[in-house]
Amino acid sequence: MELIFLLLWAMLRSREATGHGNGKCPAPHYIEFAEIIIDRVMLGSKGRYKCEDGYKRTIGESNLIVCINDTGLIHWTTKTSVCTRVSMAASQQSERKPQSSAPENPVTIVPSDTAGYCGIPSPVEHATPTMTHYAVGQELHYKCLGGYDARPPTSDISTCKEESGKIFWTRLSLLCTNDSRSGEEMTQPIPITDTSEPSHVPPVMLHVCTATSELSHVPSVMLPVTVAVSTVFPIIFILLGWIIIPKLWRRRSFTEEVKTEKTKSILITAARVEMESEVEAHRLKSNM
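RESULT FIELD:
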């Protein structure tokens, strides 16, 4: 009974230390001018040994390594020999093969004393270990390379999570640049589209951070001014119309009334003069 209890306790501790560990994360985010540092590798993560130039993988020898739990001891599967030297002709032929253009951040695994995680894979002659799969719960520490840390933040952490059946990496606010201008003057990073499909390829998701931009944009300070101008000016025009137009109409009406009165006055005067002339002519005739 005590043995069963100890086994259950050991399994629980292992699960707490390693998180989920069973899911496969998609390719991590790519940040230009940044490196990835890993101090704790999750259980279930995978890697491969990459042969140096002039060497190739030995036929029939797997270069795959896995972070496993071996009766409570968590470690990388070991390899003794993976690569063999190739002939000069084969080496030249391999150099002519097209190389992948997918961008990837350099990954460095550093020693850690934390129990329940894998550390640095064992060294293999003429080969370098590279990460190919990350388990759910894995944390990747991004850090700007030297010379590209002009503006904070210069480091950030992305974690592989699983929510509602979807596995994704948390977003980063890292912008590595050698330009110390303010963030409003810098080009914003291209949004990253997460994918739930696991990938065997090293980081391929592009996230562009650049110190210069050919695109011109209106500063955010101008936006309230533009809104105010476009709102206030029409109101002012309407108010002026309400005030000025009636005044002009009343002035025009008054002018027309004055003209009418003057015309009437002239006509009345002319009629009076004509009547007086007729009376005077009649008087003269009577005297004769």
